[in-house]
Design goal:
Length: about 525
């Protein structure tokens, strides 16, 4: 017995399967990030999505595939936000995934069908450029910031860190997507295989050339930095007391700076001079200034701020940095009047925190200059670059991922400091309240062991300082500008090509051969 189906039944089923495949293919690159940290997978993880999108039967289908692939990637990279945002994470991933819809159309245009060898070579430059523009757009703080940039998956690969010193994480993303594009075309386009192998060789030679050419920073002494990580302690007073115990144990270890994690102090020090006096006493006992992080309502201005405050033996030194870039939904709700309902389905902020207005470079008693960042500000390449251009010799990130202890978030966050160190040629210390804490040298290489999320302890890192200027600090986001130029050139070429085509539906006039003669008029 044959069961009748609707006229569009099989086609609809195929569309559903294709959509599911796009979601899964988009999620695959997330395995290259910590905690799985399969960094090598990044160089082929995009191939399934590229092959799927290039096979789309129409530009509309390619845009849909790109959107679903981007949504899958966003869900996979940010899945640890589910406890905080609940089902809203699906909505957020779907909205951000829309940024990949034009990229899907670009992939079909550059790689679809049977492209010529020159066109295939152009795709190796154009497709990565399109991906980079998507990364640039979603890096805007209002859209969540640059968490999960594809190049960031290469944080522990030495040659990738050298690339970052030249063109930032953007240049690493370009390389990763270029390799994926060449591999995808190598698989499906037999006439272009030699050209694609050549493109892969060029990528390898370019990375090797950067490895040899990129300047090394010159050593400039050392600084001993202690990180205090009390662990998950819900009560603010108990957490403060645990920080005191761990800090006091550092006496006699000749440290130059002690760093507490994000929200390590829950009350404004100006309103609580007793807390300020306790930290000042610790500074005296240890023989070093203490950089704490105050998460509290200010006594001198309205609103709640997250602030890095430097405290010496005589109390707060007056050097203070107020966090400038806040975590969407975690610390403020964008368009609260429209999206305020998010507080009822997750752990979104009940009250928006206030923003700082300017970066701050602090000076220690021995003259060393440090640039503080708070929480996910370490994900923004421009912030650390501006601090180094302002004279920072050491970058500090104060963080807390206590809401996500058993997820990929702590490892992902700790890995970002390696890229910021490599980009700027300055060491960076990632100090967290609850782990993972870490330190990296001026080349992005790890110093010592990570402090895991299970630890309630302190650690001292002997951090090498450096002088010199990396190409990225000097030139900035030139890789992004190059990608925009490549896309502009491709768009211009495609526009010229379209103009050269005859208009559809207007047949050319019939040609007349030499043997034909005009018809004679009838008389």
């Amino acid at each position: 017995m044959r069961i009748p189906v609707g006229r569009h039944g099989p086609r609809l089923s195929s569309a559903w399967w294709r959509g599911a495949a796009a979601l899964l293919a988009g999620a695959l690159p997330a395995l290259a990030f910590p905690a799985p940290a399969l960094w090598w997978l990044a160089y082929g993880a995009l191939v399934p999505l590229l092959l799927l999108v290039r096979s789309a039967g129409s530009a509309r289908r390619a845009a849909l595939d790109g959107w679903l692939g981007g949504t899958g990637f966003m869900l996979a990279v940010h899945h640890w936000l589910l406890p905080s945002l609940s089902v809203f994470i699906v909505v957020l991933a779907g909205l951000l995934g829309l940024l990949w819809a034009p990229w899907g159309v670009l992939v079909r245009s550059a790689m679809g069908g049977r492209p010529s060898v020159p066109r295939a070579l152009a795709a190796v430059a154009v497709v990565p450029s399109g991906w980079l523009v998507v990364e640039l757009c979603r890096s805007w703080q209002g859209l969540g910031g640059p968490w999960g940039l594809l190049g960031a998956s290469q944080w522990e690969v030495p040659f990738a860190l050298r690339l970052a010193s030249v063109g930032g994480v953007w240049l690493v993303s370009l390389l990763v997507v270029a390799v994926n594009t060449a591999v995808a075309l190598l698989v499906v386009l037999r006439p272009a295989r030699l050209a694609m192998v050549s493109a892969l060789v060029v990528c390898a030679l370019a990375a090797g050339g950067v490895w040899m050419w990129a300047p090394h920073m010159k050593g400039d002494g050392r600084i001993r930095v202690a990180v205090v990580q009390p662990g998950v302690i819900e009560n603010g007073d108990a957490r403060f007391a645990r920080g005191e115990v761990l800090t006091r144990a550092l006496a006699g270890q000749h440290v130059d700076l002690v760093v507490w994690g994000e929200s390590s102090v829950g009350q404004d020090l100006a309103a609580r001079p007793d807390l300020a006096a306790r930290i000042a006493k610790l500074s005296t006992e240890v023989g070093a200034d203490v950089l704490v992080n105050v998460d509290a309502r200010r006594s001198d201005k309205p609103g709640i701020f997250k602030s890095s405050v430097l405290v010496g033996p005589h109390g707060p030194t007056g050097q203070r940095y107020d966090k400038m870039r806040l975590v969407p939904f975690g610390e403020y709700i964008p368009a609260r009047s429209l999206l305020g309902w998010a507080t009822s389905v997750g752990k979104a902020a009940d009250e928006d925190r206030r923003r700082g207005t300017t970066p701050v470079v602090m000076t220690l008693p021995d003259g060393a200059r440090l640039g503080p960042l708070v929480c996910f500000e370490s994900a923004f390449p421009d912030m650390s670059r501006h601090l180094v251009r302002g004279g920072a010799q050491l970058l500090i990130a104060q963080s807390s991922t206590s809401s996500f202890q058993d997820t990929w978030a702590p490892a992902q966050h700790a890995s970002l400091a390696a890229l910021r160190a490599a980009e700027t040629g300055r060491p960076m210390v990632h100090a967290t309240l609850t782990g993972i804490s870490a330190a990296y040298g001026p080349d992005g290489a790890r110093i010592g062991a990570w402090l895991p999320t299970s630890a309630s302890t302190s650690a001292v890192y002997d951090v090498p300082l450096a002088t010199g200027t990396t190409p990225y600090v000097r030139l900035g986001d030139w890789a992004v500008h190059a990608a925009l130029v490549a896309l502009g050139a491709y768009g211009a070429a495609e526009g010229a090509r379209a103009l050269r085509k005859p208009a559809p539906g207007l047949p050319a006039p019939p040609s007349r051969t030499a043997r034909e003669s005009p018809a004679r008029p009838v008389r």
